[in-house]
Design brief:
Length: 343
């Protein structure tokens, strides 16, 4: 390296703008210059310190970028731009790789592992409304539920296999005594979950099942009473008495519309009959409703990315969602370290 001389450097830090002068060298072969003192002081390339970058990203994953920049200014007293907030939030998301046990590591202990799946729609600039798949997983150890962790993916459900498998491995799928999968009636979701865990305890979301029963209730004069009876039967005995009640309505219903609705609901029950052991699920203390995955869709997707007027480019959206998962999963420091290494 060839000594050039002293050169000034300006860097925006959490305490304001810093001005310093440090030695500068140039490689005679390639002409690349460097200032070794920058690395010793912890100054990254660019005009912002690591603390400012990661502080902006932390706010950017939770708030619209303009609001995040304004809030950072009000909290820290450092003026930053909306674009800088966007850049550094996406940098953290692009670098985030959840820590997952390797093939040689057993992973954490779990008595029961719960895996839930659903999807939400977000507005993109390229293709209009597009789905983003959301997965939630948590483990139960000694009767206590551990924190929920999330993963988000784009593309088809078949493309999500490795993503949900990695999430489950992190939560102890290799050591879990029982894996419980819960989702709505979408065939594509159950194809993925069954492929990964064919012996899992599968549960059809209670609320989606009630929606199908309500198509029959709408044609009954005493529908509310009938619905209450079927709910009690499902919780006490499983799907069989409800299937029998629907079969009777399909044969002897007072109107053709009622018979058609009963037949459609009966087909739905028969398709998912192995996923409706609600009495056993209650006995074991398993959730039978998809409240946690619905909450995950709201937390990860909608609260941040489905506000008024928001339209996203797919590449930017996926980086932001990754940053959001890093925060919600408790991996924010890990993601920031990964982003710093990637830079």
């Amino acid at each position: 390296m060839r000594w050039v001389g002293f050169r000034p450097r300006h860097c925006l830090t959490q305490t304001g703008r810093v001005h310093l002068v440090r030695g500068y060298w140039v490689c005679p072969a390639c002409g690349t210059g460097c200032a070794p003192q920058d690395a010793r002081l912890g100054f990254p390339a660019g005009q912002m310190s690591v603390g400012v970058q990661h502080g902006l990203a932390l706010l950017g994953q939770a708030l619209p970028f303009g609001q995040a920049a304004d809030l950072y200014h009000r909290l820290v007293g450092v003026q930053v731009s909306q674009k800088s907030t966007e850049v550094w939030t996406e940098a953290v998301g692009a670098a985030y790789q959840p820590p997952v046990p390797t093939r040689y590591e057993p992973g954490p202990a779990a008595d029961t592992l719960f895996v839930l799946a659903d999807a939400g729609m977000l507005l993109t600039r390229e293709d209009g409304w597009k789905e983003r798949k959301v997965f939630a997983a948590w483990r139960r150890v000694d009767g206590e539920d551990q924190p929920v962790r999330y993963a988000v993916g784009a593309g088809s459900w078949d493309a999500q296999v490795e993503r949900v498998a990695a999430l489950a491995r992190r939560e102890g799928s290799r050591r879990a005594r029982q894996i419980v999968c819960l989702a709505d009636g979408a065939a594509a979701i159950w194809k993925v979950l069954t492929r990964l865990w064919p012996d899992a305890f599968q549960l059809l979301d209670w609320y989606h099942l009630m929606e199908h029963l309500d198509t029959v209730v709408a044609h009954l004069p005493d529908g509310a009473v009938w619905r209450t009876q079927q709910q009690a039967a499902l919780l006490a005995q499983g799907y069989r008495p409800v299937a029998q009640a629907l079969a009777r309505l399909a044969r002897t219903g007072s109107t053709s519309a009622l018979q058609a609705a009963a037949r459609a609901c009966l087909r739905y029950l028969w398709k998912h009959r192995s996923r409706m052991d609600y009495p056993e699920a209650q006995r074991r203390g398993y959730p039978i409703g998809s409240g946690r995955i619905e909450s995950a869709v709201k937390q990860v997707l909608q609260h941040r990315c489905k506000q008024a007027g928001m339209r996203w480019k797919a590449a930017h959206l996926d980086k932001l969602l990754a940053a959001r998962c890093a925060y919600l999963n408790g991996d924010w420091d890990v993601a920031c370290q990964q982003a710093r290494r990637a830079a």
